[in-house]
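Is FE2/S2 (inorganic) cluster placement plausible here? Inputs below.
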Amino acid sequence: MVTPSTRTSGLIDCDIHPVLSDFNELVPYLDESIQQYMNIGKFAKGALAKQNSGSFKFPSSPYANPLPVPLRADAFPPNGDIPGSDPAFLAQDLLDRCNTTYGILNIGHGTMAAFHNVEVAAKYTSAANDWLYDKWVKSDPRYRMTMEVTPLDPAMAVKEIERIGKRPEIVGINLHCVNIPLGKRHYWPIYEIAEAYNLPIVLHPDSEGTGEYAATAGVGPASTYMEWHTSLGLIGQRNVISLVCDGVFEQFPNLKVNFIEYGFSWVAPTMWRMDKNWKALRHEVPWLKMLPSEYIRRNIRFGTQPIEEPARPKDLIEIIQMIGAEHMLLFCSDYPHWDGDEIDRAFLHFPQDLKDKIFYHNPLESFRF
Amino acid sequence: MVNTKEKHRLVVCSAEELQEGNRQLIEVNGVEIGLIRAEGIIYAFRNSCPHQGVPMLYGSVVGTMLPSKPHEYVYAHHNEIIRCPLHGWEFNLKTGKAMFSPDVSIKTYEIKEENGEIVLYLDKEPKQVTRKAFSCILSS
Ligand code: FES
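Reply from A.M.:
I modeled the complex. Tokens:
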């Protein structure tokens, strides 16, 4: 395991997933209208539980993970509940074991970003933020959190940021990708307050394929979970292109956007193609004053997990050099998900100074610490 | 411990302690070895995944699909596969080999049930032996 002697920096884990044991945990944070809508608390019915007739159904992915235990099977808390449901056990099993300085909590299954009923989604999202803060962040001084907002309704998102976005334990805004490209002016009110509050926008796969407003994955539906999971990078790529071309980083030069879990090896060819196109087509996007790749390097950051594994591991270091990504990568464990990375094994071929940046200095600069 | 020819005999536990669905953990000369019984057969393997090193003993014991033609599923190896608890790599318990490549494997150990005892046969003399407590959601 990693000990302070094998590491020369602190460690900020930018992607840890807490989950609700039960939707009823949200009852104290939801008004009766949403409790009734969701059939929880005193409104729990049950008679039609197996039929789903008229019952609320949480928008989960139709691409079910086919593994027998679709989360880390070594991460069940002692009470047998779901991995990621016990703050004290997670602190011991992950933060103590890895000697983590700060762990950033990005809520797992706490989102309804692409859900068709935006009122319900917004209230659910606020309740999930409050639950995360009370149950998790208050339980251990190493925990930090991103707050979720409703991407389909920027006005409500801004209100939510005004409500809790100044709390020091909140280090970013978890936005989620829906079927409106991220560069669109639709989102600019969110970017404006994010920049003013010095909070980065965080994107993490969650709503892809889960709700009616989900982003499309390229050509059409995937046939398998493997196809779906591998295609997530395409959504990240498409949104990086949109952010740059629509001028978001001219309008908000200090905004940071952190793409977590979409991969990063694709950034090099994306930059090359964008830079080439801009030289010929800059008159179509005359608001771009420098090479598209320069905006990407200045304003966008990428999570390391799931670490890409070329046949020659050193190839990954070369790709990082090609992108100029030494200052752009953020360590993520993704605990307790099945595709997470073990810190002492995933970076074996990385030079020490690069590891220091990825493990500590880059996260420190791209989240609000 | 008796030295039989080249192999070293090590009694791990009673057969009672390794019934169907049970899992046991032992450390021999600093290396953890996991023991399980599935479909009546006992298996012993190194408790560390060759990928990112997580403990294999938390893994699910399952069957899987054989390589087949496009859009054909052929189920086989019922309860002869252990899957890594993290990324799900599949290893054949009988051979230790990964389903995706014979060049990747977990080390397996010779293990026998003899007169109500579970016995490991090891290449190296077991100098330091520690039984370790183990429980997980999948073990009974
Ligand atoms: S650690 Fe076992 S498959 Fe990755």
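Short version: Chain A has one domain: 12-366.
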